[in-house]
Amino acid sequence: MKRYLTALLIAGCSSAFAQTVGKLSDPVEWINPLMGTASKPSMSNGNTYPTIALPWGMNFWTPQTGKMGDGWAYTYDADKIRGFKQTHQPSPWMNDYGQFSVMPVTGKKKFEQDERASWYSHKAEVAKPYYYSVYLADADVTTEITPTERAAQFRFTFPKSDSSFVVLDAFDKGSYIKIFPKERKIIGYTTRHSHKLTPENFKNYFVAYFDKDFSSANAWKGKELLKEELEVKADHSGAIIGFKTTKGEKVTMKVASSFISFEQAELNLRRELANDTFEATKQKAKDIWNKTLSRVAVEGGTIDQTRTFYSSFYRTLFFPNKLYELDASNKIVHWSPYNGKILPGYMFAGTGFWDTFRALYPFLNLVYPSINKEMHEGLINDYKEGGWLPEWSSPGYANVMVGNNSASVVADAYIKGLRGYDINTLYDALVHGANNEGPLEAVGRAGVKYYNELGYVPYDVKINENAARTLEYAYDDFTIYQLGKALKKPKAETDLYAKRSMNYKNLFDPSSGLMRGKNKDGSFQSPFNPFKWGDAFTEGNSWHYSWSVFQDIDGLAKLMGGKEKFVSKLDSVFSLPPTYDESYYGSVIHEIREMQIANMGQYAHGNQPIQHMIYLYNYAGAPWKTQYWVRETMDRMYKATPDGYCGDEDNGQTSAWYVFSAMGFYPVTPATDQYVLGAPLFKKVTLNLENGKTVTINAANNSADNRYVQGLKYNGVAYPKNWLSHKELTKGGTLDFNMSATPNKQRGTKETDFPYSFSTDPDHK
What we know:
Blueprint: H1 2-11, E1 20-21, E2 60-64, E3 80-81, E4 83-87, E5 100-106, H2 113-116, E6 118-119, E7 125-128, E8 131-136, E9 141-147, E10 151-158, E11 161-169, E12 175-180, E13 185-190, E14 204-210, E15 216-221, E16 224-225, E17 231-234, E18 237-245, E19 249-258, H3 262-273, H4 278-293, E20 296-299, E21 301-302, H5 303-315, E22 321-322, E23 324-326, E24 332-335, E25 342-344, E26 348-349, E27 351-352, H6 353-356, H7 360-367, H8 369-386, E28 392-393, H9 406-415, H10 423-434, H11 448-454, H12 466-486, H13 491-500, E29 508-509, E30 514-515, H14 542-545, H15 553-559, H16 563-575, H17 590-597, H18 623-637, H19 653-663, E31 665-666, E32 674-677, E33 684-688, E34 694-698, E35 708-714, E36 717-718, E37 723-725, H20 726-729, E38 733-740
Parallel strand pairs: 34-38
Antiparallel strand pairs: 1-21, 2-4, 3-6, 4-5, 5-11, 7-8, 8-9, 9-10, 10-19, 11-18, 12-13, 12-17, 13-14, 14-19, 15-16, 15-18, 20-33, 22-26, 23-24, 24-25, 27-28, 29-30, 31-32, 32-37, 33-34, 35-36, 35-38
Region (Disordered): 735-765
Protein name: Alpha-mannosidase
Signal peptide: 1-18
């Protein structure tokens, strides 16, 4: 508590009721990894697990309350822990791959997951990004974990017992274990994964060393404890090793894994843990977190706002995670989830571009371009090894979600200045993906023949979520146009994508003023219920997807009848009741329920399609309405508590929305140079950019009441526009926001102040 009090004393109070937090030296301590963990399939408050890991690390660790194979690995309301799992899981809906678990027990050799499970309490749990500790009541053992990128240290504090044990569970679906008592060592592999295109030779090899001699050692398979055998290969394999311990005795385990081989797992362990003590690894992990978090510093918020900011920030720093390793010569190598070979170069996995193209990748481009350069080199390898760019990787191609949004991810990085990688190969990959159906419906473009010929994917040709696909393909075509133009590709080629980027107009229904599925013969799908979820749309309804014209909001506003009617239509999202039609799904999916209970009308912030919509008032001369709703959403929909999100967190996207919005701007249209203004949440935000430049965002009179931008100065000069330039921000500078309790209805109302729209782009015309 001393740390919090010091920060509070430095900052003082902004009012009689709201203490504010000053400059932090230890931001990692403000993170709550349990944010979003009070979730279940029918209601997501984040669908997160406490991720004990380093930023973008190859391996994560989490306490496991769920059963083997359950995507809800850790749920806050559970009573028992079954193990401590190495995980690579991006989402409970995607489930995991390459997982195994560790669990201490005492008394009897209990190795089955239900028998070994122990009651625990959050009162005896410490969860930090770099350290986890919990008291397991049934075993009378405290377990601690601290991570590196590909390894970890465990420390078990045992009671006095002749029967202290550690169970290692390699899970089912095919696994292997071998115990080496003289070396105090266990090796094994797991083959468990969740997606059918994963190569057959997939293995996560692991090695574990203990600092105490074994008093007993047994392999086990299924429910059978093997008496003499120290090696087993079976559907479900494991090991249980015993110790004689004194009260309070600490036994340390060092563990690492590899997707390449046992030898590489040993190498990862030696390289990352060496002779470090548990405390040394813990301090190194903490230092890495603080250094990574230091890129964005916030001051002058409340305790809750500061905790929520850093807890959300933490979630932006995991996916996609590293799948590459360093061989004995320190060369970067990876096992390919596309062809099963060991190959040179970078590889990443665990992200869905349908979610993360919106804000997560733009955040990396602004704050962490170096890691995004590695990710793009990994994308080149995805394409070379698999023939396509993934739209969801876990670890290779996954058949889930719609769109061809790898185009946005690739184009945005280059437009924002990323260089030093083979962008022309990536451009070829985008053109290939945009004009072909892939090996899965979610790779390439499903319905591409219809789309390219008709300008839309028809409703009545048995291609689901057709309107959503059309809208996303049109935006993706815009990003290909932007990249092609930047690379000086032939005009005839780029003009094709420019033309296709206007295909959104083909689905606009003047009678409803909304987007609507269209049949092959050109007639609109009927009957039409704009509140119907799914069907023509993806995890949303027409009220959510009608705003998915990222590239041309001015054109959309014109279709809707002009600026005033556009603003009125935006207002309707919040004023309509949370009506829904779930008939397409046959039951109420969790995304529907999350919208219904939020008390924000049809605004469904818990899912991605509508998250940018709040910022669209800036395109129609009503920026103060953006300022109001951004603050409202941050205040009501986010908190650093187990129920702190309002839907799936989704690989950093929903968190990146908060981080950007708290800074005061948001990337509505990736693959352009612009961020659209909202209003900052804090009195001061400092962006310490990778190039050494600093962006300072001041809002000295910011408060709960003062949520409106009265005026803005950029480097001391009055700035009337509703957008900021990425290129200019990377030069460093100071933004001074004058905040007030009443909106300024003159600022940002001229068309010259509005953000980018393709149809008003003079370069295109």
